[in-house]
Amino acid sequence: MTFIRFRRKTLIFVTIALWFIIANSARSEPERVALVIGNGNYNHVANLPNAQNDASDISSALSRIGFDVDYSLDLDFRGMRVALRDFAKRAENADIALIYFAGHGIEIDGVNYIIPVNAELQSDKDVSFEAIRLDTVVTSLSSSEGLKIVLVDACRNNPFLSTMTRTNSTRSIGSGLGRIDPSGVLVSYAAKGGTLALDGEGRNSPYAEALLQHIEEPGLELGKMFRKVRDTVFELTEGYQEPFTYGSLPSEDIFLVPAIASKQNADLLAEAFAKADRSQSLADWNIFLERFANEHDHPLYELGKLRQAALSQLDARKTNDNRRPNALTDELTLFAAAESLDFPRAWALYFDRYPNGAMAKSAKLQENVSFLNALRDRVWGRYRNLNGGNALTQEMLQTAMEMIDLDEGQVTRIQNALTYGRIGFVGIDGKYGPKTRNGIEKFQERRSLPVSGLPTRATLYALTQTGGWGSSGRLEYDASIFPTSGPLARVLDPQAVALLEQDHRLDRVLSVFPGREIIYGYFQGRLYVATNLGTTIGSSDLRVLEEKTEGSLIEIDSREEEEFIRELVRFDQKLWGTTSIRNNKGPAIGLQQKQGNWLWRSGRELEYTNWAPGQPERVLEASPLDESYGRLVPLERTGGNNTRVERIGWATTSNLPPTIILEIE
To answer: Where residue 646 falls among pLDDT bands split at 50, 70, 90?
Structure first.
């Protein structure tokens, strides 16, 4: 799908996100909290392929419908108890408290347990000391006065049973989980008591797939939702598996997602929106807004208002627009490209060309959302979900200035602009501290910009119009203030990238890696690209990739270059493993061993090194077929669940890691 066809869908998504932010700030919603745990990588038995996918996808779905989600993967015994303890406190004042667990479970002598990843369960007696009673999970919600829900996708076939020693011949060990009689809590099993649930052959288990299909359905009453989940699972498994719900719901109807319009109205609204969108006529948008004024809370209505406002701006400019006739088309095309990519660098490239263009109002709003999303990705990584909202956490503020490549001189010019722009004295010291941030907030408010206190590209342009710069000189900047495409690797539209970056090197890379997630960035004029290949490859395959991209594995010559590379890859767990950061899965770098000595693959000697403790290790060189490479390893991790790499070092390996970083002159 090209970015032009994708543009409208992307804009709808971004605007819906904006609509939810505005709506949530304008009214007080019931408090919803959720704890989601996915245990898939077990230490002593085979892994569950889908448990982490299930937890990740359920967590995202819950976030989208207003839950504040605590999301964790592969918790050990202590981690599960701490997670339940902490969540019990959060659930006390919640209107809805929900716990979802995907992983292994077991029933012994009528007692149900869910199993941490470090459990060994060598005998049936060990279960009391190494597993978590399901009663404990249910009891953790006892202090909550609101609706309490526990979803257990833990009835899968249990590999512990084949090795577990039975110390008492009369002790029963069930198949799946046993029935439960909860008091005041609704408990849903993936399979009814005493039966097994399937892990699934696709991305999700049948139970998770059914939940994902129905949990976000507008106007679906909760009891009916569980019935539809049961029917869907029964159909997906051809009658093998049947979920079951224990406990009862209150008498009043409960909707996780309220109906926003009748189906007939929604269909009419969507049809009218599509018609106005095709025509791009101001008159058609005016008719649309007048006809559906009663549906003013609908996301498409909000989007229609934005489109109508943009066309009104264009209409007002026509008489004074002395630009060439196709300039507007060029701007809309570039806007669509930035909208498709939707990361801060993309919007900065748009503003470089059209700092005050016809679509500037919409671009400023979308740039701000993109900026905040990038900050969230830097703080919580790929697999952590944050409930929607416009609030900046302290951690997000701390990482914000690391994301923007502004030097001390540029910050000084910003401070001068704020002072001469009559915002007030913020202190001119070249450091972006609280005073400067407060000054930016006031400036953004006066200029009707999204208020974040952060120097977005639109804010920097507005600052250049203040007129006063003092002795520091005028602020000069361009899209290079965002040197990378963002914290996380993504599938990028080649046409959108080509229009914005105009870099044939990057065009070539995207043609070599079609449909693959990448991160790219620029350092001293060189292009750097990181991607996870999904598997290890040999030296011959690597040479083919290097020839096609006209690049090579990175060769690090300075601390500054290494710092740029760390910033490029440190936030995406997938580049360091599958779903978490692992010591033995760090990105490959262009080292090789020759006669016991380590050199760059180009043959150059190492002018700069940063070996991790205990490195370099000698790699076997018994034959010409033996291979040797370097890789980055995390020396320190930070963030919840160690979601990002703080310090890196170098290590050696005989196998090329799945993640590679290429540099292209």
So the answer is: confident
C-alpha 80/C-alpha 97 separation (Å) is: 17
Asked whether 384 and 641 are in contact (CB, 8 A), the reply is yes
Q: How far is CA 384 from CA 55, 68, 70, 323, 569, in A?
A: 11, 11, 8, 46, 17
- Which one is predicted more confidently, 110 or 6? 110
Cα separation, 199 vs 189, in Å, equals: 14
DSSP 8-state code for residue 503: -
Instruction: Write out the DSSP string of 288-351.
Output: HHHHTGGGTTSHHHHHHHHHHHHHHHHHHHGGG--S-TTHHHHHHHHHHHHHHH-SHHHHHHHH
Contacts 24+ apart (CB under 8 A), 354-357: 355/461, 356/461, 357/331
How many Cα atoms sit within 13 Å of 441 on the Cβ side? 10
One-letter amino acid identity for 154?
Answer: A
Q: Which residues contact 51 (CB under 8 A, 6 or more apart)?
A: 38, 39, 40, 102, 103, 153, 199, 205
Task: List C-alpha distances in Å: 181 to 133, 135, 254, 641.
Answer: 14, 10, 22, 34
Hey, which of 96-110, 325-339, 520-534 has the most confident mean pLDDT? 520-534
Residue 646's SS3 state is: strand
Q: Do 441 and 395 form a contact (C-beta atoms < 8 A)?
A: no
Q: Which residues pair with 32 in a beta bridge?
A: 96
DSSP 255: B
User: Dihedral sign, CA of 377, 382, 383, 388?
Assistant: positive
Q: Please give the C-alpha separations between residue 189 and each of 35, 183, 353, in angstroms, as whole numbers.
A: 16, 16, 55
- Asked if 495 contacts 3 with a C-beta cutoff of 8 angstroms, the reply is yes
From the list 527, 546, 390, the residue with the least C-alpha distance to 454 is: 390
Under DSSP, is residue 376 helix (H, G, I), strand (E, B) or coil? helix
Measured CA to CA, the distance from residue 229 to residue 237 in angstroms comes to: 12
| Distant-in-sequence contacts of 388-396, Cβ < 8 A, 24+ apart | 388/17, 388/20, 388/21, 388/24, 388/63, 388/64, 388/66, 389/21, 389/24, 389/25, 390/21, 390/25, 392/452, 392/453, 392/454, 396/372
Angle at alpha carbon of residue 81, lines to 80 and 87, rounded to 5°: 90
Peptide bond before residue 616 is cis, with ω within 30 degrees of 0: yes
Task: Specify the pTM.
Answer: 0.53
Phi, psi of 255 (to 5 degrees): -125, 120
Burial of 17: CB neighbours in 10 Å, binned 0-12, 13-18, 19+: middle
- φ, ψ for residue 23 (rounded to 5)? -65, -40
Q: What number of other Cβ atoms are within 10 A of residue 585's Cβ?
A: 21
Picking from 619, 615, 618, 610, the residue whose alpha carbon sits closest to that of residue 651 is: 615
Q: What is the mean pLDDT of residues 256-276?
A: 71
Nearest to 136 by CA among 90, 71, 185, 70: 185
The packing angle between helices 3-26 and 299-317, to 10°, is 110
The C-alpha atoms of residue 75 and residue 662 are separated, in whole angstroms, by 34
